[in-house]
Prior knowledge:
Blueprint: H1 3-16, E1 19-23, H2 30-45, E2 49-53, E3 83-87, E4 107-112, E5 123-126, H3 133-144, H4 150-163, H5 174-185, H6 190-198, H7 203-214, E6 217-219, E7 222-226, H8 229-234, H9 245-249, E8 257-265, E9 268-275, H10 282-287, E10 292-293, E11 297-303, H11 306-330
Parallel strand pairs: 1-2, 1-3, 3-4, 4-5, 7-8
Antiparallel strand pairs: 6-7, 8-9, 9-11, 10-11
Helix pairs in contact: 2-4, 3-4, 4-5, 4-6
Amino acid sequence: MKKTKTLKSIWEIINKKDNFLLITHKNPDGDAIGSILGFYYYLKEKGKNVYLYLPDNIPFVYQFLVFEELQVFSESRNINFNVAIFLDCGDLERIGEKNNFLKNIPLIINIDHHPTNTFFGNLNLVNSKASSTTEILANFFFRYKENITQKVSQCLLTGLITDTGNFKFSNTNTNSLRTAIKLIENGADISYISQQVYERKTLSSLYLLGKALLRLKLKDKVAFSFITIEDMEETNSKIEDTEGIVDTLRTLKDAKIVVFLYPISPFKTKISLRSKSPYIDVGLFAKKFGGGGHKEAAGFEREGEPQNLVLNVVEDLLEFIVEYESLLIDK
């Protein structure tokens, strides 16, 4: 289906249907929370019955976007939905294993910007050239409605800011900046959002950052570090306290690729990847292990503990870089 037909179909569904379930991925980042809450408030303002499905709680750093009591769905609730809308999810697995409730929902809409998206929806609004899912949503709203409320704009600009690294990453372009301007014109406060996101670190998150910095090593332009479950217990940390660590490690001058490992359960590890090289696509590397993402930012999960996995991951990545560079030379 052509993009214009997809946009029109989604707009018609929003206006005709009444019961919506909005879904985003595990360990949600700013784009996930900004898109799901922005869409939630938008639909509520249109008088729709809307519920959220959040595999994990909204992180503390994004609680400032919770303007009212939210309707949150759990499998124990018997609710009939017309539509499920996935936001910022590259595939169905991103929401976790508890997804049996989806079989009772007749229509799935998939809105995302990841190039590794599997197009799992009945309708797929996927644009890998967009900086963020919130950018896609904002332009969708602006296409059919000139103005959106301050509440919605604040959520969408938050996602745009965080997924562009505060407009520092290479996915920052004229389209993302124009979208940001429109959101500011509709009431979003860029200064307030930046303060809330970047200037309210918890003590435990800073302790974790310190441990990651102490373990930081560099091998053949690949920087790598990790934290352990013991680190998190010692500092009384939550998974959300790991957010931003990999982007701090990314600032190392001599690093082209950054790898950061942290525990998401006692025996499962998340591997976060960042690339500063214009040639190395870490999204392709992550995809080899069941993950996904973008050329410059990606991740995947693996069974085991970070301290036992880190060297193997780095070796796998170095092999991938050699193979990838040889393919580029052949081309």
